[in-house]
């Protein structure tokens, strides 16, 4: 797991899940913001085998997506993983519960964009995600109002932390979540794939890598 890397007791680690189809600057922006503002030691990207809410026809193989994601990463503080495949888990809730059980002395924070807060109530056992670890939600263009009015935000409203309480946020007992206003990055994997399709004369990023639940 993690190429033999095991987290040390007391470490604070952010978890960013997604299909990474492909990884892009938006993923990096969230990761770098989380490292800085949440005082995290590392970020783990959890490249999912298949997002249940997305079509498998549009999904590159998991190993290829992970390899492409690793190319995007320019710091040892961000690690690309395929933990769901290693654990044999299919849903975020069970993956996070297994991580917490396996590393009880590590402080994990689930990271996601505001667009995911809008529809997280469609995820399997979504309540368990909030009850397993602290959650940091990053603003995205046009999503703020809908995200903060979402079913999940309303259900867990009394557990929301202020942005001024970030210093030890990773140590917060769940449920605990914070909505982070940040430099907005509108890039998405969907937009990147569409741009690649519109530019057939360019070398597509998928061609640069040999064959080997979430945006």
- Corresponding CATH architecture: 3-Layer(aba) Sandwich
As a percent range, the share of strand residues is 15-25%
Computed CA radius of gyration, to the nearest angstrom: 17 Å
Which strand order do you get reading across the main beta sheet? Answer: 3-2-1-4-5-7-6
- Remind me, CATH topology? Rossmann fold
How is this structure best described in words?
- It is an enzyme of class 2 (transferase).
- Pfam families: CTP_transf_like (PF01467).
- It comes from Denitrobaculum tricleocarpae.
- This is Probable nicotinate-nucleotide adenylyltransferase.
- This protein has 215 residues and is an alpha/beta fold.
- Helix content is 34%, strand content 16%.
- It contains nine helices and seven strands; from the N terminus they run βαβαβααβααβααββα.
- Helix 1 (25-37) links the parallel strand 1 and strand 2 (42-47).
- The longest helix is centred in the N-terminal third of the chain and has 13 residues, at 25-37.
- The relative contact order is 0.19.
- The model is unreliable at 191-215 (pLDDT under 50).
SSE diagram, text form:
Blueprint: E1 12-18, H1 25-37, E2 42-47, H2 62-72, E3 78-81, H3 83-87, H4 92-102, E4 107-113, H5 114-119, H6 126-132, E5 134-138, H7 144-148, H8 151-155, E6 160-161, E7 177-180, H9 189-198
Question: What characteristics describe this protein?
Answer:
ATP binding; 9 helices; alpha/beta; 215 residues; Rossmann fold; seven-stranded parallel sheet; nucleotide-binding; disordered C terminus; Cyt_trans-like; NadD/NMNAT; Probable nicotinate-nucleotide adenylyltransferase
């Amino acid at each position: 797991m993690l190429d033999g890397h095991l987290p040390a007791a007391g470490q604070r680690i952010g978890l960013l899940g997604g299909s990474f189809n492909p990884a892009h600057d938006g993923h990096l922006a969230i990761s770098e913001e989380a490292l800085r503002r949440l005082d995290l030691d590392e970020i783990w990207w959890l490249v999912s085998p298949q997002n249940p809410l997305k079509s498998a026809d549009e999904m590159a193989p998991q190993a290829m997506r992970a390899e492409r994601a690793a190319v995007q990463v320019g710091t040892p503080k961000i690690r690309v993983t395929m933990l769901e495949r290693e654990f044999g888990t299919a849903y975020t809730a069970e993956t996070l519960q297994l991580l917490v059980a396996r590393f009880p002395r590590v402080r994990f924070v689930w990271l996601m964009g505001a667009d995911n807060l809008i529809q997280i109530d469609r995820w399997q056992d979504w309540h368990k995600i909030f009850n397993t670890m602290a959650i940091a939600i990053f603003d995205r263009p046009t999503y703020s109002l809908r995200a903060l009015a979402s079913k999940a935000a309303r259900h867990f409203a009394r557990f929301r932390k202020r942005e001024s309480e970030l210093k030890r946020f990773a140590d917060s007992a769940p449920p605990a979540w914070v909505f982070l206003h940040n430099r907005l990055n509108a890039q998405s994997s969907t937009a990147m794939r569409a741009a690649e399709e519109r530019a057939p004369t360019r070398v597509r990023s998928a061609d640069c890598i040999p064959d080997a639940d979430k945006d």
